[in-house]
Design brief:
alpha+beta; five-stranded antiparallel beta sheet; 48% helix; elongated; transmembrane; 15 helices
């Protein structure tokens, strides 16, 4: 049949193209910044980004704790994404020179005197250590990492155990042992450089390609410092860790050492260390499994629907027996009511307009990120791009909402445009503002500053709102969608529906397939958001997004077909709600993730988690609901155009 041929012709080339794209883009990397060449003994600046904890979800700036400060504190100018992430990049007193070793040096030591932490400072440091805070530093835009060496104990008889090296982002502020709290007050920096090939008469240049740290806790008595700010580290395991007693003043030294090593890693590949994964094969297997399952189920659904439709259309178009046609039942009977405008057409068209806006923004962001242009080295670029794209996609959201509103016999286009521009963004801004007030109360750097909030409001009302109005105006003026059948003046009575046609049952049924296609990827996205990991698997994500679009469309068409066969023509709102059914499963998964994967116990971190989760679920429902709605609308118009209506 024509429909099945079109389906396979469309899907097969696309799936093959996407798989080839993913294979090509896995090693493709477009750096976010130009490389910096260093000469021997050039200063390499160590900057601090923030303190983070997966237990509290509240980032703090570096100098919120009593670390040693330089003579002048300078904050880096940040983009929108960095501000929203809670990054506050600031200079530090670490003096690091290219390819120059330092055995041990004391920070902020005046006349060989140790640093004294007051009771209040000691209590704050102890509290941050018990909350599992990590410190994030950068050198030449490379984040610091702690090396973890894990031994795979596959064969107990094998003496030569395989060593699996992984990297942890940042370093732990300290640790607890038998109800005692210890601070990492000595940092051993290990920096790797790549020597660039130069001509004979030119001086060698170096590029930083890796930045590691080994944090140590060494008590005051075991560190020997002289008046030149140099120090001597204790040998072997003779030293005791530096305890922090939160009930009294504590004296300690902050020290560091610098070690340089040459590396074969080239500058363009320097982020590979941070992005290595131990379970790439599992990820590939799960993605391919999802692809096969979804396309198999989609193919079966398509064939069933196509065969059933062919049979229906053939029966409906028979004009042999008038009595038989009088006794027909099924979706043809509701042809006079199927395009009857629903309740609240303005709100429906506004939500669908916001869904189109989200769809365009997500598609472009994932595609550009897949090409490597929004790599983790471009700090904050992903979030900045997403914010600006959402604003500029308002013109497409307004256009689609305006045209649909006119199709649904709406007349107040100005009010409809305002509703489209403010309904979804207003909810997002309201929730974020309430959460931001709680973060402000905790003095966290994750709180969006007031000037940034004003800038976002200006973007909303200065860019997004006018563009939505512009798109809405042209969409409303355009010819409405051409419905193939006329709507009767008197609405038809709807027969009593079976239990499985209940709206909530429909949401549960429709959400399984799209969620099943993407839940593996959801784990990695949640880890990136809530556990301060880097997310870079945009090739996988793009494929998952395409699968999501296909599966949402398929399920939506099946659900609307069953509903019309049950002679229920009120499909507009129901289809929009049911198509977003996978958002319900995302919510359930978020609760599961919170209980099983995160160690959050306090009220405000829990509030932040569920507040941001509510925004994610709402956005995901809008996205999948819009995809399903437009697929169902096209399907309904096609099938009613294919039958002869007297």
């Amino acid at each position: 049949t024509k429909i099945s041929q079109v389906w396979w012709q469309d899907c097969l080339p696309w799936s093959l193209l996407l798989l080839s794209l993913m294979c090509e883009t896995s090693a493709f990397y477009v750096p976010g910044v130009a490389p910096i060449n260093f000469h021997q003994n050039d200063p390499v600046e160590i900057k601090a980004v923030k303190l983070t904890s997966s237990r509290t979800q509240l980032p703090y700036e570096y100098y919120s704790l009593p670390f040693c400060q330089p003579s002048k504190i300078t904050y880096k100018a940040e983009n929108l994404g960095e501000v929203l992430r809670g990054d506050r990049i600031v200079n530090t007193p670490f003096q690091v020179l290219m390819n120059s070793e330092k055995k041990c040096e004391v920070l902020c030591s005046q006349s060989n005197k140790p640093v004294t932490l007051t009771v209040e400072q000691s209590r704050l440091v102890a509290e941050r250590i018990t909350e599992d805070y990590y410190v994030h530093l950068i050198a030449d835009n490379l984040p610091v990492a702690t090396r973890l060496e894990l031994y795979s104990n596959r064969d107990s008889d094998d003496k030569k155990k395989e060593k699996d090296v992984q990297f942890e982002h940042g370093y732990r502020l300290g640790f607890t042992d038998v109800n005692k709290i210890y601070l990492h007050n000595h940092l051993s920096f290990i920096l790797y450089y790549h020597r660039e090939d130069m001509e004979e008469d030119q001086e060698h240049t170096y590029r930083v390609v890796r930045f590691e740290v080994i944090p140590q806790s060494i008590r005051l008595e075991d560190l020997k410092a002289d008046e030149k700010s140099s120090c001597t580290l204790p040998e072997g395991a003779n030293s005791s860790p530096q305890e922090i007693d939160p009930t009294k003043e504590n004296q300690l030294y902050f020290t560091y050492s610098v070690h340089w090593e040459e590396s074969d890693i080239k500058w363009a590949s320097r982020w590979d260390t941070y992005l290595t994964m131990s379970d790439v094969q599992i990820h590939w297997f799960s993605i391919i499994n999802s692809v096969v399952v979804v396309f198999f189920l989609s193919g079966i659904l398509s064939m069933i629907i196509i065969r059933t439709l062919r049979k229906d259309i053939a029966n409906y178009n028979k004009e042999d027996d008038i009595e038989d046609t009088m006794e027909e039942s099924g979706w043809k009977l509701v042809h006079g009511d199927v395009f009857r405008p629903p309740q609240y057409p303005m709100i429906l068209s506004s939500l669908l307009g916001s869904g189109i806006q989200l769809f365009c923004m997500i598609l472009i962001v994932i595609f550009v990120a897949m090409l490597g242009m929004l790599s983790p080295s471009s700090r904050g670029a992903l979030m900045t791009t997403a914010c600006f794209l959402f604003m500029f996609m308002g013109v497409f959201g307004g256009f689609s909402a305006g045209r649909l509103y006119r199709t649904l016999k709406g007349h107040r286009w100005k009010k409809g445009a305002f509703c489209t521009a403010t309904l979804y963004p207003g909810v997002v801004f309201g929730i974020c503002f309430v959460l931001n007030c709680f973060i402000w109360g905790k003095h966290s750097s994750g709180a969006v500053p007031f000037p940034t909030m004003v800038a976002l409001l200006c973007m909303w009302f200065g860019i997004s709102l006018p563009l939505v109005y512009l798109g809405y105006y042209f969409g409303f003026r355009k010819q409405p969608y051409d419905n193939p059948v006329r709507t009767n003046q008197i609405p038809r009575q709807i027969p009593e529906q079976r239990w499985y046609m209940n709206r909530f049952v429909g949401i549960l049924m429709a959400g399984i397939l799209p969620f099943g296609a993407m839940f593996i990827e959801l784990f990695f996205i949640f880890s990136a958001i809530w556990e301060n990991q880097f997310y870079y698997l945009f090739g996988f994500l793009f494929l998952v997004f395409i699968i999501l679009v296909v599966s949402c469309s398929q399920i939506s068409i099946v659900m609307v077909y069953f509903q019309l066969c049950a002679e229920d023509y009120r499909w507009w709102w129901r289809n929009f709600l049911v198509s977003g059914g996978s958002a319900f499963y995302v919510l359930v998964y978020a609760i599961f993730y919170f209980v099983n994967k995160l160690d959050i116990v306090e009220f405000i971190p829990s509030l932040l988690y569920f507040g941001y989760t509510a925004l994610m679920v709402l956005s995901f429902w809008l996205l999948t609901g819009t995809i399903g709605f437009y697929a169902a609308y096209m399907f309904v118009r096609k099938i009613y155009a294919a039958v002869k209506i007297d």
